Amino acid sequence: MTPSIIATCKQTRFHLLNDKPSREIDVEGLTIAVTSPLESEDDPARAKPKGKSKSRAEARELIADAHLRLKAGVHYGLIGRNGTGKSTLLRAMADKLVPGIPQLTRIAILQQTDNETQESQGLFGNDGSNQGGIESKYVLEYVMSSDHHRNDVTQKMNFLSKSFETEDPLQPVRGIRRTRHDDIEKQLFLAQKMANLKSGARGLQARKELKSVESKLQISKELLKEANEDIDAEVIKQETQAAMEALQDLQSEFEAMKLVDIEQQARQILIGLGFQEDNLNKPFLTLSGGWRMRCMLASVLIQNPDIMILDEPTNFLDLLGVVWLEEYLKQLRDSSQATIVLVSHDRDFVNAVCEEIVIIRDQKLSYFKGNLSAYETDFEEQKLYWGRMKEAQERQIAHMEATVRESVKIGKKTNDDGKLRMAKSRQKKLDNRMGVQVNSRGGRFKLNRDLAGWHSSARDEIDVPQDEKGVLIALPDASELRFPGPLISLEGVVYKYKTGAAPVLKGIDLVMHMGDRVGVMGLNGCGKSTLIHLVAGITVPTQGKVSLHSRLKMGYYAQHSIEELHILGQGDPALTALGIMTKDVDNSLNEGQIRGLLSSLGLQGRVVSDVPIHRLSGGQLVRLALARVIWNAPHLLVLDEITTHLDFHTVTALASALSTFNGAILLVSHDRFMVRAVIEGKRVLDHKLDEDFEGVEEEANESQPRRRIVYVLRDGTLKVQAEGVEQFEKSLVKKVQKMLPTQA
Questions:
Q1: Residue 346 DSSP class
Q2: Count of other CB atoms within 10 angstroms of residue 519
Q3: Of 74, 303, 343, 631, which is most buried by a Cβ count within 10 Å?
Q4: What is the Cα–Cα distance from 464 to 2, expressed in whole angstroms?
Q5: Angle formed at CA 269 by CA 731 and CA 523, multiple of 5 degrees
Q6: Is 513 helix (H, G, I), strand (E, B) or coil?
Q7: Is the pTM higher than 0.70?
Q8: Continuous segment of H or E residues that includes residue 700
Q9: CA 492, CA 664: separation in Å to the nearest integer?
Q10: Nearest to 672 by CA among 366, 258, 428, 346
């Protein structure tokens, strides 16, 4: 049941007539809504709407009367809380549902929330042309074939070239007519799409264009039939010449494309994203979900689109892949004019890649020139500036109101008309002239210069920027341990998948006590999940010893917790968050306590009891999975990639909540901000943290500060990073410089 996206805007003749590809977008009055008609049909409790107006009422507006403005070649970071419409906006752009985006504009998109659509990109291009199935493609082939424009040029060139290799004089005629016919079929697909999307006068114009294309297609079919019969010699000459010119144009375009060795570039991108050389010839469909997403990301990066859209591209990458992608996208600034729009919860990644920020808030789009850290700094400065101005004006208003009251009182008592006129004048100023005291250029506001003639409402009210009402996350304190001792202890642990195989882990020693903060980082495949499974008791070591405190309560958030919830939701479509928690706690908590726990994690009201879990967003599922982990107040939290599916506002709130947790935390994450904040306890200036965050600064006066340590798992052993995340990141940057592909 895929929601339908409805996009409207203030259209102009430019939007209707412009058929040239563009790297820029400038659309005013954009409104985007989503509607799910299938849900209302399947749900017997909901009455079916009658008429178009009632059907439209079912749509939920995510963006209203906004201005979408993207400049060519700029890298944008799109930010906003979960559920504000980021992914919907990106999908509407990619599907050309936004009026004003020319149909010939080439848009490449990676979107995490729609795997089926992603895979269909291997089957069909934006024009509806069949690009060949993915079921028979290998990884390298899949990526190389993703550039549909290049494939189209190559196919046409080879087809026309073969038509000149025969002695049949009619073959070039058939070739050029077949090529033109295929182009008209693509035009028909786009014309049908536009006729379905537009309504009113624009819809009438779109239907006229559709009829025109249908007439061209009918004429083209007749010409194809004539190509097998006798044709006038002069027509043969003209058509052959046209075929020759078309072939020459295609060859020139192909030669320009050959400046880039696409196979070499595809190999370098795939290796940069974590693929091994011997995996490049594996069938695409045999890959797991995470590796498919890496492959799809590579297929987007290898293209040269006008607009590149990346929705959470770092979700399935290890830190090496994230650093490589950072450097690759920064390299594109100098070598490509493509406009990039990306969404990511990784604050360091957004800061490094993005030049400007687009903010979705209150159904509007606003823009900031600078990266995420600069935006947050500017926001705080603006909040302070306008807050002080408003406070000063409120004091001024209070003083003037007191003066007016006193003047009226004295004027009436003494019949002093001057006092009454003064009171009336000041009251008029209070009613109509208070507000913003600066003009658009930052200077002092003057009525006769800045808003001459607008005497009744000369100034706007002072609007102090407000922090978005974020999701507050609170974790329960760990239950009492009763007697001291290490929570977990790993001594000389060795693990092998098979007897005789090389060990994945060798000589692992790890001890954790209450309050400890331990972070484990490393590349994909280094054995982090295996280590976590040993700690959680899911697997047993081949050699060595794993000891647990006799009264230990462990809360384990698995990397695939969200997938598990998806499976449960599909198996029981009526299952809600309250229902699954009631089963988990097994009468240990009553309904009120369960609701309180879920509320402390940001899940409240009908979302808990009425919304099935298969309809919850990724961020809501993470909170539900976390509730399943912490409900019994564990002493040790084992968290494996918990930031996936969260927006960075929620990541910040989670980091602050974890910082105050009095138990121990073992964190496995590729998110550098999360490891710095939770494990190292650092207040990084580039990232805003909540006021209740507790880090090393707050522990400075304590006699026994927390034990904080960052490990990197490499070659089966844990290696201490004395300089924390920065040490590991520096080592990866050096490695990445050798892996980057050469840009054309």
A1: -
A2: 25
A3: 343
A4: 39
A5: 40
A6: coil
A7: yes
A8: none
A9: 22
A10: 346
Q: Which two tokens stand for residue 135?
A: 């079921």
Our CA angle for 180, 182, 186, nearest 5°, is 115
pLDDT of residue 57: 44
Structure tokens, 462: 């002072």
Q: What SS3 state is found at 704?
A: coil
- Which amino acid, residue 697? E
The predicted-structure confidence for 473-528, as pLDDT tens digits, reads as follows: 888 899 888 888 899 999 999 999 888 888 999 989 999 999 999 999 998 888 89
pLDDT digits (tens, 9 = 90+) for 317-356: 889 999 999 999 998 887 778 899 999 988 889 999 999 9
Query: How many other CB atoms are found less than 10 A from the CB of residue 165?
Result: 7
The secondary structure of residue 600, as a DSSP letter, is H
**Which parts of 294-372 are beta strand (E)?**
307-311, 339-343, 356-361, 364-369
Secondary structure (3-state) at 419: helix
The angle at the Cα of 175, spanning 173 to 177, to the nearest 5 degrees, equals: 70
The pair of three-digit structure tokens given for residue 301, joined into one six-digit string: 């990066």
What is the DSSP code (8-state) at residue 286? Answer: G
Sign of the CA dihedral with 312 first, then 313, 317, and 320 last:
negative
Q: Is residue 33 a contact partner of residue 71, using CB atoms and an 8 Å limit? A: no
Please give the pLDDT value at position 532: 93
Q: Are 265 and 142 in contact (CB under 8 A)?
A: no
Please state at what angle helix 577-585 crosses helix 618-630, rounded to 10 degrees: 20
Angle subtended at Cα 39 by Cα 35 and Cα 41, rounded to the nearest 5 degrees: 110
Q: Is 205 helix (H, G, I), strand (E, B) or coil?
A: helix
pLDDT in tens, 595-604: 999 998 888 8
163 closest CA partner among 246, 258, 223: 246
Q: Token pair 């304590």 is at which residue?
A: 702
Q: Can you read off the two tokens belonging to residue 560?
A: 């695939």
Count CA within 13 A, CB hemisphere, residue 455: 2
Does an H or E element contain 461, and which? none
Q: pLDDT for 172-199, tens place per residue?
A: 888 888 888 888 888 788 778 777 766 6
Report strand pairing: 517-521 vs 664-668. Answer: parallel
CATH fold of 514-533+553-713 reads Rossmann fold (3.40.50)
Asked whether 686 and 373 are in contact (CB, 8 A), the reply is yes
1-10 burial string, b = 16+ CB within 10 Å, else e? eebebbbbbe
Cβ(32)–Cβ(364) under 8 Å?
no
Strand-pair category, 356-361 with 75-79: parallel
pLDDT at 467: 66
Distances (CA, A) of 540 to 464, 533, 634, 658: 57, 8, 22, 28
**What is the largest distance, in Å, between two alpha-carbon atoms of the chain?**
115
Cβ atoms within 10 A of the Cβ of 204, count? 12
Give the pair of three-digit tokens for residue 86: 């980021």
Q: Please report, for the chain, how many H helices and E strands are present, in that order.
A: 26, 18
Q: Which residues pair with 367 in a beta bridge?
A: 358
> 314 by DSSP, 3-state: which?
coil
Which residue in 144, 123, 118 sits closest to 310, CA to CA? Answer: 118
Q: pLDDT grade, residue 404 (50/70/90)?
A: confident
Q: For residues 511 and 548, what is the distance between their CA atoms, to the nearest angstrom?
A: 10
User: Looking at the chain, how many residues does it have?
Assistant: 744
